[in-house]
Amino acid sequence: MLPLRDLQKRFESALFDDAPGAIAPWIRGCERDAAECAAIDAHARLSIYRNNLREGFRKALALEFPVIERLVGADYFRQLALAFLAEHPSSAGDLHPIGEPFAQFLHRRFEDTQYAYLPDVATLEWAYQQSLVAADAPPFDLQMLRDIPQEAYGQLRFTLHPACGLVRSAYPVVRIWAVNQPEAPAEEVVDLSSGADFVLLRRVAMGVEMRRIAAADFAILNEFAQGAVLANALGSAHDLDADFDLGEALRRFIGLGVFTGAQLGSSPPHGEPLP
Amino acid sequence: MSTRLPSPPAASPSLRTGIGLRAQHHADIVARKPGVGWFEAHSENYFAAGGAQRSYLTKIRADYPLSLHGVGLSIGSTDPLNRAHLREIARLVHDFEPLLVSEHLSWSSVEGRFTNDLLPLPYTEEALRHMITRVRDVQDVLGRQILIENVSSYVQFTCSYIPEWEFLTSLAEESGCGILLDVNNVYVSARNHGFDAHAWLNTMPRSAVKEIHLAGHTVRPMARQEILIDTHNTHVCAAVWDLYAAAANRFPGVPALIEWDADIPPLDVLVAEARKADEVAEVNHVAAA
Questions:
Q1: Residues within 8 A of A (CB atoms), B 230-289 only
Q2: I need a labelling partner for B188 at 20 to 30 A (CA). Which of A130, B30, B231, B283 fits?
Q3: Residue in A with minimal Cα distance to B161
Q4: Searching chain B, which residue's CA lies closest to the CA of residue A92?
Q5: Neighbouring-strand partners of residue A212
């Protein structure tokens, strides 16, 4: 008698490690006509499950990274998916989280190659997926600032809406993404040196919007995302743009539903009040 | 979402049979309110914290009865029960108040590594005890009965000595779970392993079967033989309709569901398939009367 745990380990190893030897002796053909069904041996039967594992994983990954699949082609994507499966098998009963380490995987594989933009495209696609499923939250209401004295604004911490994402890349990833949508014409060439992208993702009625924003906008939002207070966050924006207009930027962000709240944070050691 | 939902009004004119809910059909369902009896959602597709998927499910739940069908709890695994996964299911149960909640007679993980497939169990006393314990645990956490579905399988284990029907029946008796009878899976496994699907069906206890699944499968040549794969990508085949007629006769009034998960057709194709299921059950009911 093979204990259940031992059986499951052997079976699972046959699928992931392509090592059916340990479980094969415990698999039988059909009962009704042994001679007929014996022709389908244990290895062939196990190959159905192995195929289910690989194809199920590949399909789930392709649903999350359709642009990567289109960029590299279905055949090569399948190879990538298998290599990724070997390094990062699913660790949950829900397949959706499998894509989380995919950009890092692509980075290790393609850094210092002409395909070094692929990891950034994957980062953008993953941010898109995260935005789709993020929690709902009420938009920021300016009334929330009513009871806060103006001289304390420098200590405000703005909370980004859970569905807002920030992605930065040295490549024009938004353009790459757009020309590789299913409805996009097949042959548009994107000049990889045509500029860096600072991207704000946010949820809109019909899905997720990707918006290219200014470097200073990105910097201040990124500081907020890290939990910085306004005074410090503003410093990052000013470092990039001496003329950065805070009031105008905040109105724009609020109009886009980027924030869901703001609280007074404790003073960081180097914090200074707004001028 | 924390508010409780009102009981849904009956969709009208309504078929009795339901269909599996797929994201491709969300907008169409909300816009057209097709007259199917109910919808079944794959639990894992709605684990999202928020966003469009859950919003659609809320809208659809307001108009139709709903069941939650899990494919990833890995209930038969010897790993510790996946509490995080179960919490997500409990959250859905709380938020959407489904009519039925179901899982599979299968496992999918070892030491936290998941195949995300419905792998077969050996039918042994040890596996039966294990399943009884796990099903009881899940039912305790959810505070309600769950249904366990028979799966399609492509292997049998030499150490299995309890017939599948007996295993499933004992599980239902001892854990208090119901049985989700997938007639396509019975047919697929019967063909793959050489048993009589109708005889299998006739062993299922009438009182334990709470839901019936119907789906299409693929016949694949293998080693100069054929093996049937449970692909859910096509129409229900004639032999499975025959088996369903027998099931509808044996389990009158048990809700049936059309599952179609790959190469998903327009909503109307699924509604037509549900109508056919109603007709098969009705004709059979008249013939039996």
A1: none
A2: B283
A3: A1
A4: B114
A5: A199
Looking at domain B18-288, its CATH class is alpha beta
* A223 assigned to some structural domain: yes
- Residue B288's pLDDT is 57
Paired with B257 in beta bridges are B18, B213
In a domain, A85, yes or no: no
User: B226 has which bridge partners?
Assistant: B221
Residue A202: inside a domain, yes or no?
Answer: yes
Residues B20, B260 contacting (CB under 8 angstroms): yes
Which residue in A28, A39, A163 is closest to B51 by CB distance?
A163
Write the residue in A12, A40, A52 that is nearest to B222 by C-beta: A40
Which amino acid, one-letter code, is at B136? R
Whether the CA torsion A224, A228, A229, A231 is positive or negative: it is negative
* Burial call B166-203: b when 16+ CB within 10 Å, e when fewer: ebbbbbbeebebbbbbbbbbbbbbbbbbbbebeebbee
Distance of CA B226 to the CA centre of its chain: 25
Name the residue with tokens 């990105």. Answer: A218
In a domain, A194, yes or no: yes
**Residue span of the structural domain in which A195 resides:** 135-275
pLDDT at A28: 83
Mean pLDDT of A137-149: 86
Q: Please check whether residue B216 touches A, CB under 8 A.
A: no
Give the whole-angstrom CA distance, residue B44 versus residue B57.
Answer: 13
- Kindly write down the DSSP assignment for every residue of B123-161, as one continuous string: -SHHHHHHHHHHHHHHHHHHTS--EEE----S-EETT--
Number of Cβ atoms within 10 Å of the Cβ of B165: 20
At residue B1, the pLDDT reads 41
Give the closest-approach CA distance of A192 to chain B in angstroms.
33
Structure token digits, residue B205 = 């206890």
Q: What is the pTM of this model?
A: 0.92
Amino acid symbol at B213: H
Q: How many domains does the structure of chain A reveal?
A: 1
